[in-house]
Amino acid sequence: HGMMKFWTYIYVTGAKEMWTLRQLLPPHLKSATTFEVLSACIWQCRTIALELDPNDEVRFLPVVNARSVFNPPLSKTYYGNVLAFPAAISTAGELSRNPMGYAVQLLKKAKDNVTQEYMRSLADLMHIKGRPCLVTGGRSFVISNLTRAGLDQVDFGWGRPVYSGTSGELPGIVSFYMPYKNKRGERGVLFPICLPVLAMERFIKELHLMLGEFSGHPDVSSGSSVVISSSL
Predict the structure, then answer these.
(1) For 112-140, what is each residue's pLDDT tens digit?
(2) What pLDDT, in 10s, does the model give residues 181-220?
(3) Is 198 left (phi over 0), alpha (psi -120 to 50) or beta?
(4) What domains can be seen in the chain, in order of their start residue?
(5) Pairing of the two strands 174-181 and 140-145
(6) Which pTM was predicted?
(7) d(CA 224, CA 20)
(8) From which residue to which does the signal peptide run (predicted)?
């Protein structure tokens, strides 16, 4: 809406903050993956921060590698696109009011929908509809997990990279999880996010509130590590 955008990197350590977030989940969701838990947290915090109309439909689209769903399996030498963008859907009001487990459940259901039949149907739909845009506006949010892509292990002869992630500004509707090691040598997840200035302030506040909800872990310090990269 013509508002100044603020660009930041959020750093979340694997052990400390993830332990804290998992305490917010009911027993039947304790086995949720790190991607599901962290994404649910970010989706909720972002939705609250944007202060959308409670009746607005919001969507989270995880980037899912669907290679494992095919039978017979795809050849290991196949380098084509086998990605899916299933949508977890809620109203902004329901997502904001409910515990984090609500968002985790929606994400798990969306990911579980990615079957071989789903992928074949998706290919047909893309052809029939002329490859329509999957996401429009701030109500949709996409995250892709690059922590296992191995980019941080690449060595072209002068050592491994200090940073292995996006090279510039991303649209506000897209983010990536990237491997990162902080100054203390702790490995964790780094993700960029772009929001209007006031929304960014609310987002960081909500994130700190979630991470401060439980502090029983002996190594959990108050708040997460937030590194401001630049304002755009």
Answers:
(1) 999 999 998 888 888 788 777 666 667 99
(2) 777 777 788 888 888 889 999 999 999 898 875 444 433 3
(3) alpha
(4) 5-223 (3.30.559.10)
(5) parallel
(6) 0.84
(7) 11
(8) none
